[in-house]
Design a protein that fits this description.
The complex is a heterodimer of chains A (about 170) and B (about 220). Chain A is an alpha+beta fold. In chain A, about 35% of the residues lie in helices and about 30% in strands. Chain A has one domain: 3-Layer(aba) Sandwich (Rossmann fold). Chain A has a five-stranded mixed β-sheet with strand order 1-5-4-3-2, covered by helices on one side. In chain A, strand 4 and strand 5 form a beta hairpin. The radius of gyration of chain A is 19 Å and the shape is globular. With about 220 residues, chain B is α+β, with helices and mostly antiparallel strands. Chain B has two domains: about 110 residues, no CATH class; about 70 residues, no CATH class. In chain B, strand 1 and strand 2 form a beta hairpin. In chain B, helix 1 runs antiparallel to helix 2 and helix 1 runs parallel beside helix 3. Classes of the chains: A alpha+beta (about 170), B alpha+beta (about 220). Chains A and B meet through helix 1, strand 3, strand 4 and strand 5 of A and strand 3, strand 6, helix 5 and strand 7 of B.
């Protein structure tokens, strides 16, 4: 059976869409140019606040994000469990959160997107000098049934994005 | 090719391609680069890497064939469909200004009646700066042009008319010159000298330097 080259192009294209994910993620880190991270410094999870101006019945955003960040830092061996030694305090403000809807996303890409954005301040104890900030935003904007639950998983993904940026820019 | 002013037209990287389709698409893009508002929907040329997008589409048109050229032009036209920016809510971000206190006589420094050290010293002053958030709805072409293109090709063009609907929310944050908790009372005390006090207002500066002149106390 002779296949049209178009079939292959379309199949590869759709596979690429499926595998590449269905949203965007971006992170920005702004660090104090004079700051040198102490060797072996760990990260203490500081204050997490909800600055979205909304409350969400389905999720305790602050608690879920705090838990996700703590677990992921622990897994990366970056968590400072005792408030002593070389450490940086990471305060987080959740500035944007939209739970979205998987059915809407399936209906039309971009419609019913799940969105989360955080602004983090990195402070150096004991005087809590601000040494840098990290902004991370992630969206899940397309997909069907396999994006059900994105309203919860996005929290962990944003925590991952923040840690990735921390490792790239701070704890090298 | 010369334009109306007799100057040579600027062609970005498309020039090397020497394809009439590329040229056609580029002209289309130029013609649509002046935004025209239609109610809430603003039709604009794509604003993210638009010349690269034009060139890649032209390249695609070259290989796909002339019958699909109108499709790619249509993609260009729907790519910038967006609603107007709307002001959403604001939040405050933490900013710091470094305060340096340098005096000829060594003295104890207090910030808001809290002892912070002796001169000369550096101390960070922390306060809040307002950040405004604005939002608008954009089409999927604006946020994920690659995926939108693949969906269009994958659905054999069926997705294209729907893709023009601005359904995805795009947000932008901008720091304002509005601060809170940014006034600090700085006091310097030295033995045998009169107390020195000043109010410091921080507005996003990196450093503020104070050089208090401590006067000998009367009767000393």
């Amino acid at each position: 059976m002779r296949r049209s080259p178009w079939t292959l192009v379309i199949a590869i294209g759709m596979l690429a869409v499926g595998l590449a994910g269905c949203g965007t993620s971006n992170q920005i880190a702004k660090m104090d140019s004079t700051f040198n991270c102490p060797p072996g410094a760990k990260i203490e999870v500081g204050k997490v606040t909800n600055e979205t101006g909304k409350t969400f019945e389905e999720i305790d955003l602050v608690q879920v994000y705090t838990n996700a960040l703590t677990q992921k830092l622990l897994a990366q061996k970056l968590l400072c469990e005792e408030p002593s030694g070389e450490r940086l305090v990471l305060d987080t403000k959740i500035v944007e959160y939209e739970p979205g809807n998987a059915f809407k996303r399936w209906l039309m890409p971009g419609y019913g997107s799940t969105v989360m954005a955080v602004n983090c301040d990195l402070k150096l104890p004991p005087d809590q000098k601000l040494v840098g900030s990290i902004e991370a935003r992630r969206t899940v904007s397309a997909g069907g049934a396999y994006t059900i639950g994105a309203w919860e998983t996005i929290v962990g993904q944003v925590a991952d994005d923040v840690i990735k940026k921390l490792k790239e820019e701070v704890i090298k | 090719m010369l334009d109306e002013k007799g100057q040579k037209e600027r062609w970005p990287s498309c020039r090397r391609m020497k394809l009439w389709r590329a040229r056609f698409l580029y002209t289309e893009w130029q013609r649509n680069s002046f935004a025209k508002e239609e109610g809430m929907c603003m039709i604009r040329a794509p604003n993210n890497g638009s010349s690269e997008l034009v060139c890649s589409l032209a390249l695609l048109a070259r290989f796909v064939g002339s019958r699909l050229t109108p499709l790619f032009v249509a993609i260009l036209l729907v790519g910038g469909c967006a609603t107007d920016w709307q002001k959403d809510r604001s939040h405050f971000k933490t900013v710091q200004t470094e305060l340096r206190v340098e005096s000829q006589t060594e003295g104890k420094v207090f910030v808001d009646n809290r002892y912070v050290g002796t001169t000369p010293l550096k101390v960070p002053l922390e306060y809040q700066q307002q950040v405004d958030k604005k939002v608008r709805n954009v089409s999927y072409w604006e946020t994920n042009p690659g995926t939108a293109l693949l969906l269009t090709v994958g659905s054999l063009g069926l997705y294209l008319p729907f893709s023009a609907i601005p359904v995805e929310t795009q947000s932008e944050y901008s720091a304002q010159d509005v601060f809170k908790n940014n006034v600090f009372s700085v006091k310097v005390e030295a033995e045998g000298c009169e107390q020195w006090q000043e109010s410091v207002t921080c507005q996003g500066e990196n450093t503020i330097v104070l050089k208090p002149v401590l006067q000998r106390a009367t009767g000393q």
